Amino acid sequence: MIRTALVVMACLLTLSACQPHTDTLGNFSFHKQAGQSRLQGLNVHNRHHAGLTAASGNAGTDAFGLQEANRPPGMQTQVMQFRFRSRGFFDSEPAAHIHIGLAGTWHKDDPKTPENEGLLVGRGIIIGNVSQAPAGCSTARVIEIESYYRRGNRLFDASCSPPLEENAWYQIAVLAGSNGAVGYQLRDAQGRILTQFLQSDSDEQSPDDHGGWWIGHVFSNQHPQTNWSLDFHGLRVYWLPDPASKELLQGLNPQE
Hints:
By secondary structure, the protein is mainly beta. It is 11% helix and 46% strand.
């Protein structure tokens, strides 16, 4: 526990324990206007330098992240931290949700070909509404742990958060380990922990050697006349040498 706390503190305060396996990406938004979502506010040079990709679908730009990567040698747990705010997304698209994955790989289907090349493999969370899905939280505007498999997916209904509010800032941390553990921590704008969960999932459809990650939104084009924004501030993705655990999750410092 002491070693874990020291590694987490060094990584968060100096990033020296995590380099060169850290992406510090700052602030960006998915902003929908005139029926199309666009990625705004992200430094294009930094995005290209880090090998990151933005992808599009019927709703416009609907996914962003690192498509292909390997887990760095000696590292066991990938962590994503950011501050999050919905400005109209929950109200305008009540059936939609955000999907976030770590320790994975992904790419979009090419609509110009008859084959379905789409792939989404990893472990992470959803934010929004999955109430109609098997094991989905019964209420909307929530966070729930999800595993993304080569053939399907799995939600964990014991991990549902309290409902989130529009126009409120939240601090979110997500982690996924090579030991099959996946978890998240939700804090309010003042840094108070609202809830946190860690779930074990050893399904072999999510390999333990991937290092890609993504943030995306789906079912978000049901009301094309509405405008909304999803704001992500202070986005950082990094690796830790310790296995994913409740102690590691508890030791993550809130975002500044």
